[in-house]
TrEMBL record:
GO terms for molecular function: hydrolase activity. The keyword Hydrolase applies. The lineage of its organism: Bacteria, Thermotogati, Deinococcota, Deinococci, Deinococcales. It comes from the Bacteria. It comes from Deinococcus aerius. This is Arginase family hydrolase. Keywords: Hydrolase.
Length: 230
């Protein structure tokens, strides 16, 4: 099994935060840093560092359990658009993706170009992924806008986007508790840790980089260091 860990499964948002990227964002350079600066300025322009973001954009528990995968071949990267290179190194395995998004199809642009929103769907179609499970974090249960809030609703959306022969190899689940459902390390062949800075708070970058060090993750595309950039 391959284990993909998107940091946005832990670096999240609270309910009714309408400028949160979970409502929808692109993945451009300004979305990764300047958009977060603007969110911080709107909340408290005088707050030090990124502390103005703390109330609305918490780091949810459960990420601590990821340290159990230390010693397994690990890669760290900026965005899931880089996942194709990782999949090609370990083709034909099951993939468990811990994520706030299903990453099975993009609704705009070139559907054949690998992007954060479609890498898994393209991997299934190409035979790089045997079976795919998206495991949503438990905090989605309290966030109606999140994909993991109503799995039936999200499944209907996915079913409208994928052909039957691909859909039959897809599973959507949500953690019951923080970190629940993470696989036994003995079952994991390789780990991909993804920063996704357009979706994750810069306030949580130090923890993210600390986790990458614990996993001894080899950079694919170097993540963005934003801890001192507010």
């Amino acid at each position: 099994m391959l284990l993909s860990l998107d940091w946005d499964a832990f670096s999240g948002t609270r309910e009714l935060v309408f400028d949160a990227p979970i409502w929808g964002t692109r993945d451009r350079e300004p979305d990764r840093l300047e958009a977060w600066r603007e969110r911080a300025r709107k909340r408290d322009p005088g707050a030090p560092g990124w502390t103005a973001l703390d109330a609305d954009f918490p780091l949810y528990p459960g990420w601590e359990g990821l340290e159990r995968y230390a010693g397994i071949p690990a890669t760290v990267t900026l965005t899931h658009a880089d996942a194709w290179t990782w999949l090609e190194a370990f083709p034909g395995q099951d993939v468990l993706n811990v994520d706030s998004h299903y990453d099975l199809a993009s609704l705009s642009g070139d559907a054949g170009r690998v992007r954060p929103g479609n890498w898994a769907g393209l991997g299934l179609r190409a035979g790089l992924i045997r079976r795919y499970t998206c495991l949503y974090p438990d905090w989605h249960a309290g966030l109606p806008v999140a994909e993991g809030f109503d799995l039936a609703r999200t499944w209907d959306e996915v079913a409208s986007l994928l052909p039957p022969e691909v859909l039959e190899r897809v599973t959507l689940r949500r953690m019951d508790d923080p970190g629940a459902g993470l696989p036994d390390p003995a079952r994991v062949t390789a780990v991909l840790l993804v920063q996704s800075p357009a979706w994750t708070s810069p306030a949580h970058d130090p923890v993210f980089f600390g986790l990458a060090r614990t996993l001894r993750a080899v950079p694919l595309t170097p993540p963005l260091s934003r801890s001192g950039s507010a």
